[in-house]
Amino acid sequence: MTHPAHDHGAHHHEGHHHAPAGASWRTAAQATLHCLTGCAIGEVLGMVVGTAAGLHNAATVVVSIALAFVFGYALTMRGVLRAGIPLRRALKIALAADTVSIAVMELIDNTVMVGVPGAMDAGLADALFWVSLALSLALAFVLTTPVNRWMIGRGKGHAVVHAYH
Description:
mainly alpha
């Protein structure tokens, strides 16, 4: 009979439930940073595409949010697929891991971008655009980290990915 600690199959079901104090701030920050990377790529690309194409602000925000979700999920799936998980299952894992995190991040990020006077109307060569975008992403990181910590502490969000790393 094998000892439960040596049975690797058991770890996929246990997750991080047995951590007495919940998730650490470091784990939550890493999960948020991972999510922020995907969001930032999508957000910047969306803002660049929307601004360069002369789209209305609302359309630019929609493009940015859509691309943020695509890149956020893609980064998570890349790691999960590398662990040998089939594509359909990897997509389900990414959806479970990142949906709330990306949604919170995008809500904060786009609220800041729309709320900063002139930020959405600034051109790509305008410092106001890039400063506002950097500020919005930084604020999104700060406000999303506690959400991720709470979720990971309950075996949700990015905790579902840790079994595959």
